[in-house]
Design brief:
Blueprint (H helix, E strand, L loop, with lengths): L3 E4 L2 E13 L3 H9 L10 E4 L2 E11 L6 E4 L2 E6 L2 E3 L16 E11 L5 E3 L4 H7 L3 E20 L7 E21 L7 E22 L17 E22 L6 E11 L11 E3 L1 E9 L6 E2 L6 H5 L3
Parallel strand pairs: 1-3, 2-4, 3-5, 4-6, 4-7, 6-8, 7-8, 8-10, 9-10, 10-11, 11-12, 12-13, 13-14, 13-15, 14-16, 16-17
């Protein structure tokens, strides 16, 4: 059970004058590392089937697992929070809206051992069967550090993810700045995603959109359940000391389409040069991207596919 847990609740406010909720997660982390866990590690805060929730002005630290997890929720606001965990703490995601709608995450600092913000919607055949998407999610003015992703979509996206806007994000000492990830067997879709005005410094990879991320809960997943990834716009990104600019790896039988990059400059460690992009099974558009991305992204956007998806 999560430390703070609500199921089927409405009109909830969790707030304080930047007081601290300490999950004392190192006991759980050590059991996980040693393989002694008989149960799933708890979240620090989790709401299920709930609505109209505000979480603000609190410091969360050392969660055993994900920190803030609204699942099957609507109308959720998380603002002015600080989330802290050691870089080597396992699965300590900051905020993970999961099969939830109308979520706003803003004005917060997150430094943990896993993705800072990760939008999810269910896992393989179970998420496909339940079929509840994440939609209408805004992430803005968030900064922080992580050995994994700054802003992530997935990899559990079997219920579908759409209409996500992340803007004015500042990332430092990060594994991957922007990571959109799914896998064979996930099914579902990722569409109408916009990432804008992102600054990153000391990143292993700037932008990654991949179809081979994440494991499976069991061997019952359907290998023919291929995800749809369409309408992803990334614009106004500036990176300093970025080891590899980007990787876009679609699926042979479900290529990623309408992937649009605008005004992106990712500097390498020793100067303006950085490792080149790597792409496969992808189509889209690129404009003023340095270093220049892969040939699969056209420099002419005659059909206007990008603008039709980036208006959210």
């Amino acid at each position: 059970m999560s430390f703070i847990h609500g199921d089927g609740v409405q009109d909830v406010v969790i707030t304080g004058e930047n007081g601290t909720i300490d999950g004392q997660g190192d006991v759980w982390w050590n059991m996980w590392r040693q393989g002694n866990l008989k149960f799933t590690r708890p979240n620090l805060v989790e709401f299920v089937n709930s609505r109209d929730i505000i979480i603000s002005n609190i410091i969360f630290k050392n969660s055993p697992f994900w920190n803030i997890h609204p699942v099957y929720c609507s109308n959720v606001v998380v603002r002015f929070v600080t989330i802290l965990a050691p870089r080597d703490s396992p699965n300590t995601d900051g905020i993970d809206p999961d099969s939830s709608s109308n979520v706003c995450i803003e004005d917060s600092y997150i430094s943990t051992g896993d993705d800072l913000v990760a939008v999810k919607s269910g896992w393989d055949e179970y998420g496909i069967a339940y079929g509840r998407p994440s939609s209408d999610i805004t992430i803005r003015r968030v900064s922080g550090s992580s050995p994994f992703a700054g802003i992530a979509i997935g990899s559990e996206t079997s219920g579908g993810v759409e209409n996500v806007l992340a803007e004015h994000i500042n990332l430092y000492n990060t594994g991957i700045g922007i990571h959109i990830k799914t896998n064979i067997g996930r099914g579902g879709y990722i569409k109408n995603i916009t990432m804008s005005h992102v600054y990153m410094e000391d990143a292993r990879k700037g932008i990654k959109i991949s179809g081979d991320s994440g494991d499976h809960p069991d061997d019952k997943f359907d290998p023919n359940a291929l995800p749809l990834v369409r309408g992803v716009t990334v614009r106004n990104v500036w990176g300093v000391k970025v080891l590899q600019a980007g990787l876009i790896q679609g699926l042979r039988n479900s290529p990623f389409t309408d992937i649009c990059l605008y005004d992106i400059n990712l500097h390498g460690v020793t100067g303006p040069k950085t490792s080149p992009w790597k792409c496969s099974d992808v189509s889209g558009f690129a404009h003023q991207v340095s270093p220049w991305p892969c040939s699969q992204l056209s420099s002419s956007n005659q059909q206007g596919s990008c603008t039709s998806y980036s208006s959210y």
